[in-house]
């Protein structure tokens, strides 16, 4: 908290405002870290989201402050006499992240809501509601078309529905794959490189000095997820600076073990995979998987599956300090977003077990109800584009969750972009 506890301050005035320039940012970071301390989120996480976000602006951070009513001594500060006992003390806050996302092939301005918190001693007073309303007013005034947020907790999802946010679920599958060297259904049956040919797939730790690699990854990501021809919806548009700052530092700063980046031959694609050890071998999470969608050669779908499977085996070998042979037989549990699973994937590997997971925490609301662009893209019917029914439902205010939409959803918001 700002140096003192709220319980030590007699309240005279409650005010809602944005941060007063960069000089208040450090105190604000202290406050947010204090609020999230019970969840174990370190201050460095929030500081990183200030330092690596090229759009950060203190005017986009909204706070409720309390002032003491018992002045003590005064002192000179920036040419003005300020009563020492009249310090502003943060009690609640939220932040707007300035982003663009792609929906039906068009870039849409979006305000991401994050860092929503109230000091434990000042909860149940409506302060978070005041901050949220202030943020929504700001987004309306400055012409944002959409807003989104994410919450893992059902009671908070219900809370945000009061502000007209509607769930747009993300669909995942946890698959147990059988890599059986003696089976007639292995990844070696697919066209393309031989499974386990590690010389043809490079790995590198995320590093902002790998400019050439990052530029190439940006090109592939843009082609598949944010171009006008993309069938995915909701993906954040990543600028060059965003890749070098936000993406690299999120990969570097993630919990151990850090994810590995797997580069496919001839720059055809990449995979970002993270090993999350829970029990035994744990789960390998496919955090991103992109393949050059301009490739239309025979066997493309099988080759796409093959590269992903090769990267997964490589990630397993790295997790085991390289102690894996391409001729080994083993089972492997992975977690992957449904829209990322390549066509023909199960023709290349045997799936022993499958579990569907629905994350209803991604929520959207329309900010600019008069936007001609939004009206056009949310009422597209019968076009050549694949209509994402999950996102269409959300933008029309229909809250639908469940596996019945799993195959009809192309909502792809990568966690690495989360605010």
Task: Describe the protein in words.
- By secondary structure, this protein is α+β, with helices and mostly antiparallel strands.
- It is 26% helix and 28% strand.
- It contains 9 helices and 17 strands.
- Strands 1, 2, 5, 6, 7, 8, 11 and 17 form an 8-stranded mixed beta sheet that branches. A 7-stranded mixed beta sheet has the order 10-12-13-14-15-9-16. A two-stranded antiparallel sheet has the order 3-4.
- The chain is globular, with a radius of gyration of 24 Å.
- The two termini are 21 Å apart.
Number of strands: 17
| Count of DSSP H/I helices | 9
Low-pLDDT runs of 5+ residues are 1-11, 70-77, 183-200, 381-386
Termini separation comes to 21 Å
Give the helices and strands as they follow along the chain: EHHEEEEEHEHEEEHEHEEEHEEEHH
Percent of residues in helices comes to 25-40%
Secondary structural class? alpha+beta
> What is the mean pLDDT?
81
Rg, please? Answer: 24 Å
| Biggest beta-sheet profile | 8 strands, mixed
Shape: globular
Strand content: 25-35%
Compose a concise summary of this entry:
The chain is 26% helix and 28% strand. The protein is built from 9 helices and 17 strands.
How would you describe this structure in keywords?
419 residues; eight-stranded mixed sheet; 9 helices; 17 strands; 26% helix; 28% strand; globular
Strand-helix topology:
Blueprint: E1 11-18, H1 25-35, H2 43-51, E2 61-68, E3 74-77, E4 80-83, E5 88-103, E6 106-118, H3 127-141, E7 146-150, H4 154-161, E8 166-167, E9 170-179, E10 202-204, H5 211-226, E11 235-236, H6 240-253, E12 260-263, E13 269-276, E14 283-291, H7 300-319, E15 330-337, E16 350-359, E17 362-366, H8 372-378, H9 389-395
Parallel strand pairs: 6-7, 14-15
Antiparallel strand pairs: 1-2, 2-5, 3-4, 5-6, 5-11, 7-17, 8-17, 9-15, 9-16, 10-12, 12-13, 13-14
């Amino acid at each position: 908290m700002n140096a003192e506890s709220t319980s030590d301050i007699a309240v005279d005035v409650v005010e809602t405002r944005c941060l007063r320039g960069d000089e208040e940012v450090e105190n604000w970071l202290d406050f947010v870290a204090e609020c999230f301390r019970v969840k174990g989120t370190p201050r460095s996480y929030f500081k990183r989201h200030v330092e690596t976000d090229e759009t950060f602006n203190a005017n986009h951070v909204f706070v409720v402050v309390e002032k003491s009513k018992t002045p003590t001594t005064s002192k000179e500060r920036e040419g003005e006499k300020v009563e020492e006992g009249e310090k502003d003390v943060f009690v609640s806050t939220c932040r707007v992240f300035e982003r663009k996302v792609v929906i039906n092939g068009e870039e849409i301005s979006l305000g991401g809501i994050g860092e929503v918190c109230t000091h434990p001693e000042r909860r149940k007073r409506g302060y978070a509601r005041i901050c949220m309303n202030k943020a929504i007013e700001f987004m309306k005034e400055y012409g944002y078309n959409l807003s989104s947020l994410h919450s893992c907790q059902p009671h908070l999802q219900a809370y945000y529905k009061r502000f007209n946010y509607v769930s747009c679920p993300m669909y995942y599958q946890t698959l147990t794959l059988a890599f059986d060297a003696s089976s007639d259904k292995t990844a070696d049956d697919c066209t393309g490189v031989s499974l386990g040919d590690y010389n043809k797939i490079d790995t590198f730790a995320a590093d902002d000095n790998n400019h050439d690699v990052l530029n190439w990854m940006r090109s592939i990501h843009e082609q598949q997820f944010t171009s006008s021809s993309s069938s995915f919806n909701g993906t954040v548009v990543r600028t060059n600076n965003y890749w070098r700052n936000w993406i690299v530092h999120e990969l570097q700063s993630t919990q151990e073990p850090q994810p590995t980046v797997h580069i496919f031959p001839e720059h055809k694609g990449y995979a970002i995979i993270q090993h999350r050890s829970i029990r035994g071998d744990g789960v390998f999470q496919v955090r991103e998987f992109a393949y050059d969608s301009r490739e239309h050669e025979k066997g493309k779908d099988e080759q796409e599956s093959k590269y992903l499977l090769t990267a997964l085996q490589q990630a397993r070998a790295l997790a085991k300090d390289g102690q894996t042979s391409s001729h080994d037989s083993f089972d492997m549990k992975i977690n992957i977003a449904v829209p990322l699973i390549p066509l023909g994937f199960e023709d290349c590997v045997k799936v022993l077990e499958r579990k569907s997971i629905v994350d209803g925490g991604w929520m959207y609301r329309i900010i600019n109800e008069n936007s001609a662009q939004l009206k056009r893209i949310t009422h597209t019917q019968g076009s050549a584009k694949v209509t994402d029914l999950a996102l269409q439902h959300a933008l029309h205010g229909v809250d639908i969750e469940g596996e019945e939409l799993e195959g009809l959803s192309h909502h792809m918001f990568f966690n690495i972009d989360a605010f």
